[in-house]
C-alpha cells in the first residue's frame, strides 16, 4: 500500500508543536525524577559522625539530620553535643567517645546499631593539628604519636568497627576527612600532614578492598575552612596556608557540608578510594 504524505505548512506546524510537546513532557519527567531523588535525601539512613560537636562534623551532622538521617554523634565533648543538637531526640544518639580507644569505639558503634538497627554512613571528622609551626628536627615525638592516634588510628578503628555491619547490609558510605596537608605537605605541620597522608593511603586501600560490596570509601581534602581547629593555630601558620589558595579565601562550612553530603549520598555510586578536593584551586589533582 502506497501512502502519500503531502507536506503542507500546516502539517509542518502541527509536527513542530507535537515535537515541542514531547520535549516538554520529557523535560518534566526528568525534573520529577530529580525532585524525587532530592526529596529522598538521607531518609531512613543511619549515619555515624565523629567529631560532631564542632566545626565540620557539627555542620555535616546537621545537614544529614535535616535531610532525614538518624545520626550517631560521637565526640569527646558530649556537653557541646547536647548544646548543639536540640529538638530531634528521636533521631539523635549522643555518644561520648575517644576515637583513640578501640574498645570504646566498638561499643559506641554497637550502641548506634542497638538504637537504630544499622549503619549506612560513617564520616570521620574527629581530628587535631597537634603542635604546628615547628620544623621536623624540633618535633616532639609524643606529639606525633598523639596526632597519628586521633587522625589515623581513630579513623581506622571506626571504619573497622562499622564495616562488618555494612558488609552484612551490602551497602555503605565511608568518608574520611583528610586534608590538603596530606596531599601537599604543609611545612611546619609534619605530624598533621603525615597523619592525613596516611588517611589518604588508607582510603585508597579500603576503596579497592570493598569495591565489589556496595560500600564506597572516599576522603575529602579541604584547604582552610574557618573552624575552632584553625582558630587555635598560630596566625603565621594560617597565613602560610591561606596564601596558597588561588581563590584567595577560606572555604565555608556550607561548602564543606554540601560536598560531604554528596560524597556519602547513594547517588555517588561509581567513585571509591578517591580523595575529593576542596581547596579553592590549590590542588588540581
Ligand atoms: N578546618 C579546616 O580548615 C580543616 C582543613 C582540612 C581538614 N580538616 C579536618 O577536618 C576535621 C574536622 O576539623 P574541624 O576544623 O571541624 O575541627 P574542630 O576542632 O572544630 O572539631 C574537631 C572535633 O573533634 C573532636 N575530637 C578531637 N579529638 C577527639 C577524640 N580523640 N575523640 C573524639 N572526638 C575528638 C573535638 O572535640 C571536636 O569536636 C579534622 O579531621 C581536620 O583535620 C579541617
UniProtKB/TrEMBL annotation:
<comment type="similarity">
    <text>Belongs to the short-chain dehydrogenases/reductases (SDR) family.</text>
</comment>
<dbReference type="InterPro" id="IPR020904">
    <property type="entry name" value="Sc_DH/Rdtase_CS"/>
</dbReference>
<protein>
    <submittedName>
        <fullName>3-oxoacyl-[acyl-carrier protein] reductase</fullName>
    </submittedName>
</protein>
<dbReference type="GO" id="GO:0016616">
    <property type="term" value="F:oxidoreductase activity, acting on the CH-OH group of donors, NAD or NADP as acceptor"/>
</dbReference>
<dbReference type="GO" id="GO:0048038">
    <property type="term" value="F:quinone binding"/>
</dbReference>
<keyword id="KW-0560">Oxidoreductase</keyword>
<dbReference type="GO" id="GO:0006633">
    <property type="term" value="P:fatty acid biosynthetic process"/>
</dbReference>
<dbReference type="Pfam" id="PF00106">
    <property type="entry name" value="adh_short"/>
</dbReference>
<dbReference type="InterPro" id="IPR036291">
    <property type="entry name" value="NAD(P)-bd_dom_sf"/>
</dbReference>
<dbReference type="InterPro" id="IPR002347">
    <property type="entry name" value="SDR_fam"/>
</dbReference>
